[in-house]
Amino acid sequence: MIRDQGLTSKIWRFAAWGVVLLFVLNLLAVIAVVIINSFATRWLGTWLPAGWTTRWYLSAWMEFQLSSVVLVTFEITFTVVIISGLIGVMTAYALARRDFFGKRAIVLLFLLPLLIPPLTYGIPLATVLYRLGLGGTFWGVVLINLVPSVPFVVLVMIPFVEQIDPRIEAAARVFGAGTTSLFVQVLFPLLLPGMLAALLLVLVRTIAMFELTFLIAGPTTQTLVVSLYYAVFASGVRAAQSIDAMAVVYMITTLFWLVLALQFVSPTQIVARAKQQ
Amino acid sequence: MSGPSLRTRLAVRGFDGTTLLVLPGLVLMLALFVYPFLYGLADSLMPKDGGAWYGNYAKFFSDPFEYRTIAATLWLALPVTILNLAIAVPIAFRVRLMRRQRLLTTILVLPITLGTVFVADGLLTFLGPRGWFNHALTALGILSGPVKLTNNYWGVFASLLITGFPFAFLLVLSYVTGIDPAIEQAAATLGANAQQRFSRVFLPLLVPGLAITFCLSFVQAFAVFPSAVLLGAPAGPTRVISIAAYQAAFEQYDHSLGSAIALIMGAVELIVVVAVLSLRSLFYRGPAAGTKG
């Protein structure tokens, strides 16, 4: 790397770090405001609230029926993760290992949902699901969430499968492994790190996925983020601290999985396609 | 002697048992993505109250309350995307020299994973008339009194900045670190100064990556929905096209018009994306990694 020592270079460096610092400060302040307000008795126009309390958590838990909402959120996200993991890894394996007529069209089909706004395909899909009687049901929410998550797993896993040497599979075949034992004893352990990373990322994205879940969720199938939206939308009905307490509960569930995911992937990979170092 | 069996002939063309593994994924995408899309297209051509097949589209483009949402969305999404990218590039160039990037990238990934609803909730307090932002600027003497930053254009702008900048930055960073440092060293050896190295070496190599970053950031900003409702003025200047589509489909229960607006939304977005990507092809295309001797 080359580091310049000139004056303009120093000004550039100073300006760049200044902008980063300003941004990070504002970002952390936005998060801190939510946390502080959830513990505040009364907070109006001062730097810090007048007093501290934890009672908003109890009232939020009761008012928003958080125990059932959290349970539903986990049921939905884990179902989405398992289904998209199974289908996504199978598809990625076939696309990475074989070259066949129409492969480019199929890869394009898996790219499209990531390039089109969720509402563009979400509204027609929700209309179809309502017509099928799946509106507001558990499986309706799962199905609509599969549309972005299956392509995501496929696109993350294709480069991961490609870097596994096909000769390893050939060698296993030579030594008499059948399809099942080839998969269980050879492929699965090799694919595990990539799968874990891809599935944790899908988990984090599904918990935070608002637009699609919002279109189809009914009263009993609201995930945390949808409940949070309705609470903020109707703010004034409930105490702001109560809403923020719920936001903190949502934040903790998301960050728990994010921290776990960051053990396997670098933060850059959350937006960019997973690259093998 | 007959020729090779059908199975062998198919295998030569890449169709065998392994290829069939693609089927579940393909069927799922056809059922949940392609079919609803065609269904929505057909649905949008059959207006709820009868009339001509283009009735929904005519309705959208003749009502200023509806067609102005396109301009309102672009007026939010384009400036934010350009600003995000303009800040992200110089900072990515600085951060690439940093040895410990992990802390910074972890902090920046927070708003992306927390999502727009959480950020909107936080910004409502933070940017509010009695929030820390106004409080700090007044205390520093920059402002004489609080400025209104929520429930208008700037609230939505701030939310798109706070989730969009980290996204653009992390993408640009992954492209910048993908350029072989040896290329820069070669340019420096040949006497190029910092400005020349950027404009003559890095920029041409980065253009394809920047075009893709622009498109992905734009897609996110263009699809703005929860923050435009919570932080903006959803009946006025920040009535974006996704609000129009949602209201038609789920508040007026006119799924035909809702599908039509959703498709118009997709079309406008694709026009911008295709325009950016075709501009890209005017620039250099080639490897960004060096080769060994």
Strand content of chain B: under 5%
The CATH homologous superfamily of the largest domain in chain A: MetI-like
* Average pLDDT of chain A: 88
The global form of chain B is flat
Quantity of strands of chain B, as a count: 0
H and E order of chain A: HHHHHHHHHHHH
CATH architecture of chain B: Orthogonal Bundle
The CATH homologous superfamily of chain B is termed MetI-like
How far apart the termini of chain A lie comes to: 19 Å
Tell me the number of strands of chain A: 0
List unreliable stretches of 5+ residues of chain A: none
* Number of separate domains of chain A: 2
The CATH level-2 architecture of the largest domain in chain A is identified as: Orthogonal Bundle
N/C terminus separation of chain B? 52 Å
Q: What level of helicity do the residues of chain A show?
A: over 70%
Largest sheet of chain A: none
Overview of this protein structure:
The complex is a heterodimer of chains A (277) and B (293). Chain A has 277 residues and is mainly alpha-helical. In chain A, 74% of the residues lie in helices and 0% in strands. Chain A is globular. Chain B is mostly helical and 293 residues long. Chain B has helices at 6-12, 22-44, 55-62, 64-95, 102-126, 132-139, 153-176, 181-189, 194-222, 226-230, 241-251, 255-280. In chain B, α2 packs across α12 (255-280) and α7 (153-176) crosses α9. The model of chain B has no long low-confidence stretch (mean pLDDT 88). The interface between A and B is large, with 98 and 98 residues.
List keywords for this structure.
heterodimer, A: 277 residues, mainly alpha, MetI-like fold, 74% helix, 0% strand, B: 293 residues
